[in-house]
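Tokens help. Our protein:
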Amino acid sequence: MPLLVGGSNTLPSGPGIPDVRATTVTWTSSSGRITSLSDFDDPRSGAFVMPGVAGTGLPDYAFYSDQSPAFDGSVVRGVRAGQRQITIPLHLWGPDRPSCLARYHRLVQDLNPAYGPGTLTFAESDGSARRISAYYMDGLTGQEDDDRTGRHWMTAVLVFMAPSPYWLGDDKTLTFHVGGGSGTFLPLLPLRVRDSQVLGAVKILNLGEVDTYPVWTIKGPATTATITNTTTGESFVLTRTLTSSDTAVIDTREGIKDVRLNGSTNLWPNLGSSPVLWPLRPGSNDVGLTVTGTSTASSVQLTYTSRYLTAF
């Protein structure tokens, strides 16, 4: 889809350049340095996105299927979204050649994939934003001709590869406590109930469009923690005596899947023989929390990030 983004001042004119200013695009390097790719308000930025952005919609899907001699067609056994390729045509300029080259060298340094992935962020005028981790793959290879470069400007079609196809929204953190009170379970945050054995049931809303895998943090004292997604029927149980100074972290995220005590001790054996480190489904999830051996200092914290199919 055509995309030209920026602020409120005079835009470049010419055929094929729409006046669309609602979306901004930034690149955050692996070192954390942020570069605006769409800042028209500050002409010193020297970069803006040209029409021709691609790869911001649905990802490519791979279908796994079997054929049978008994009937026509096939049976689909699974569907997987593949890595995403994102294309961003970019115009880079400077008031003179030294300043243009300085901006070019900074961008080249920040795009270097050898230092790890960066982050592309598409932000809307209402403050909402979606981001994706990606590697620079192609585009700044040094091709020079009359249509692509001048003394103090250049254009390039940047190509990024995102290992995960999903765009990320806001991070959410919810904390559940055991404490004194009337004994009535209140669906408020932080949640508190009188019973020191059961934190209770809660609805957790995943505003994203695909499954998201949370990080659970359990602060002692506790002896066992059973965490169940009653919407899907999946659960896992951590059996380990935690003192009031102990913290167990169960990271269910794809590609990580780690369980640690105080950041060091491996707690995988304490999850039993076949734990299901389940995701939050899109929409409402009914989650049950049962913790034994607790006190008023005990808590369970949930952190997750909504994931989306598109950048907008």
Remarks:
- Residues 1-20, 180-198 have pLDDT under 50 and may be disordered.
- The chain is about 5% helix and 45% strand.
